[in-house]
TrEMBL record:
GO BP, sorted A to Z: modified amino acid biosynthetic process
Span list, region Disordered: 1-63
Signal peptide coordinates: none
Pfam families hit by this protein: GCS2
EC class of the enzyme, as a word: ligase
Segments of skewed composition (Basic and acidic residues): 27-49
Substrates-to-products reaction catalysed: L-cysteine + L-glutamate + ATP = gamma-L-glutamyl-L-cysteine + ADP + phosphate + H(+)
Name of this protein: Putative glutamate--cysteine ligase 2
Keyword flag Nucleotide-binding: yes
Length: 385
């Protein structure tokens, strides 16, 4: 498995600043970063068996790379076999991102949206410019940071079988990782407003069931043929097959404020993928739940996080968040046990339920200080704790 994180670049006062490209110049000189947006690198070739942060990148821990907005940095872990490796790499690359940002007078914070009002600045590059021109305010205002978890699958057939079986559980991950209650200077009323902003993209959200891998690829081709999205990289499903790597990529989560919560997320996602693959091999049919119902469940998860009811994937009815999270844990428990992750992930889930999400932390700081910039400064400290 591998984890990608997007981070917010902020000044010492707690305001997002467009110093991501400058920080990447510093990282590039240190051999830790790339300054050209990935889709603009015509000479960048990946083998079919490459994975995030893989050995083909030179540095086995990957590199810092640009994102859509200049107020962001992104990184990917190496390929990890266990959760200890995930935690080590997350801490390593959060630290290296912060070091690069410090060199240009900034810091990085694991915040999924900006609490303070800010005018997002698009990162230079042909693809990002095209996206901004094509999608207007959707792209102009899209200063959001997510966490993507890749888990290896044998082939596209297994990957599509996994996509069919994890989709009803993905909204629970939004609730667990909610870390974007503020949007451009005001409380959004949501625990994860990033999930709302992200779903402005025409290709985002849950998908219907696929008959097989060929049906999946036909749909992608049909979407690109509409000439609405810029390219296949803009297929922003909640979970998708990676274009370059033999993985299922789960994309629904906010970036987690605490690295240990991102590790818990990675363990749950691997558990979901392994459970789904096993069900497919055993002939267990995928739940026949419409994507409209899943979209409603995801909206509800983004609205209340862990502080209200969630839609239970097994019943389609509301239930207390703790009960639904417990059902997710029970669902993946055999896979967690097989990987040696059961106690660690259970403890991680219990910790989030006990102290709350990143959204809860942000609101507590704001209630104490009345200062949204103070929320950002506090988040910087927790990001690197």
């Amino acid at each position: 498995m591998g984890v990608e994180e997007e981070l917010l670049v902020v000044d010492p006062d707690g305001r997002p600043v467009p110093r991501g490209p400058a920080a990447l110049e510093v990282a590039a000189r240190r051999g830790e970063g790339e300054t050209v947006p990935e889709h603009d690198r015509a000479d960048r070739e990946r083998t079919d068996d490459a994975v995030p942060g893989g050995e083909d990148d030179g540095d086995p821990r990957g590199q810092l790379v640009p994102e859509l907005k200049a107020q962001q940095l992104e990184f990917a872990t190496r390929v990890c076999a266990d959760l200890d490796d995930v935690l080590t790499d997350l801490q390593h690359w959060r630290g290296r991102a912060d070091a690069a940002a410090r060199a240009v007078g900034a810091r990085v914070a694991a915040l999924a949206s900006s609490p303070v009002d800010v005018e997002p600045v698009t990162t230079p590059g042909a693809r990002y410019t095209e996206m901004t021109e094509t999608f207007g305010l959707t792209a102009l205002e899209q200063l959001t940071c997510g966490c993507h978890v890749h888990v290896a699958v044998a082939d596209d057939d297994e990957g599509v079988a996994v996509l069919n079986r994890v989709r009803t559980w993905l909204p629970v991950l939004t609730a667990l990782t909610a870390n974007s209650p503020f949007w451009l200077g005001r409380d959004s009323g949501h625990a994860s407003f990033r999930s709302q902003a992200w779903n402005r993209w025409p290709s985002s959200g849950p998908n219907e069931l696929f008959a097989d891998a060929a049906a999946y690829h036909r749909l992608i081709a049909q979407m690109v043929a509409t000439e609405t999205i810029v390219d296949t990289g803009m297929v922003y499903f909640d979970a998708r097959l990676s274009e370059r790597w033999p993985t299922v990529e789960v994309r629904i989560a906010d970036v987690a404020l605490r690295a240990e919560d991102a590790v818990t997320l990675a363990g749950l996602v691997r558990g979901l993928v392994e459970t789904a693959a096993g069900e497919w091999r055993d002939g267990v049919p995928a739940p026949a739940v419409r994507s409209e119902v899943i979209r409603v469940a995801a909206w509800r998860a983004g609205r209340s996080g862990l502080t209200g009811d969630l839609v239970h994937p097994g019943t389609g009815r509301p239930a207390p968040a703790a009960a639904v999270v417990g059902a997710l844990l029970d669902h993946v428990r055999p896979a967690l046990a097989a990987a040696g992750d059961e106690q660690r992930v259970a403890d991680g889930v219990a910790a989030v339920l006990d102290r709350g999400t990143g959204a809860d932390f942000q609101r507590r700081i704001h209630e104490e200080t009345g200062d949204l910039a103070a929320v950002v400064r506090a988040a910087v400290e927790v990001t690197h704790r």
